[in-house]
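pinging the channel bc i need a second pair of eyes. not urgent but kinda urgent?? the chain im working w is below, pasted from the shared doc
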Amino acid sequence: MSHHTPHVKTRGGRKTAVGNVGRPPVSWALPGILFFAVFAIVPLAIAVYLSFCRWDGLNSPTPAGLDNWTRLFKDPEFRQAAWLSLLLTTVSWAFQTPVALLLGVWAAGRQRSRAVLSAVFFIPLLLSTTAIAMLFHALLDPNFGVITEIGPWLGIDPNIMGSSTGALLTVAFVGGWQFMPFHTLIYQGGARQIPEVLYQAAEMDGAGMFRQFFHITLPQLRHTVTTSSVLMIVGSLTYFDTVLIMTKGGPGTDTTVLPYLMYRTGFQTYDLGYAAAIATALVVVATALSLILVRFSGFGNMRSTREGM
């Protein structure tokens, strides 16, 4: 049996293990770990505890056993909200990913107009979600909004927010319009890390722009796609303020996604124990989807080729 020993360099009479160069000590991560524990783990633990209680927000929580969870799995409104959340997440991913990918690859180039256009494109990311939701709510008002003028020209019903499909697609579009620049930035950074020599070799072999994209760019960005998708899934599953301002869960309950159902249950009917159960279920669903994506994409086996440099 052979034992692996790290390569050793001698510096000034002292021996240094090269394998440890570039790796900071664990203590460097302590501030981040503490911050995450205080503002994520502790609130999550409190929510899990409250999901097994009855609580109106005023009196002390009282144990309820599995009553909230039994009610959760039998509640048709919860099942509809879960389905709408998954549908909204799927539509958002299908809309944002290809556009952000193409824009990110383009922004990684050396075009003369790239810097100016990229700066303009990133403006929505600087605005608050509330302001953007209010803006689109005013633009899409069926009585006074701009949609009444340009809708017929584009073949769009001015009362698009009055239909279940139109309202859901509008929420997905507004969210994508704001956060697509963020994912574009991720793809831009990933595209700039692709070695230029791969494209030079492809050009020598006669590969055109499209073949280079599908055979070099896209495979090299597979882990970037996974990272962006995980962030996109978690963000889409937690849509709340956009739904609250633009649709209030309507028409009817056709845009009542899980975060809005949680808000309505906790802060309108003051059933905070059941709302905590909905919140915990939402965390479980988001975590499960993220882990499945990471598992089947091979992202967990990714290793940096520049580690230790």
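so The mean pLDDT is 88. and Strands lie at 8-11, 14-17, 53-54, 62-63. — does that match what u expected or am i reading it wrong
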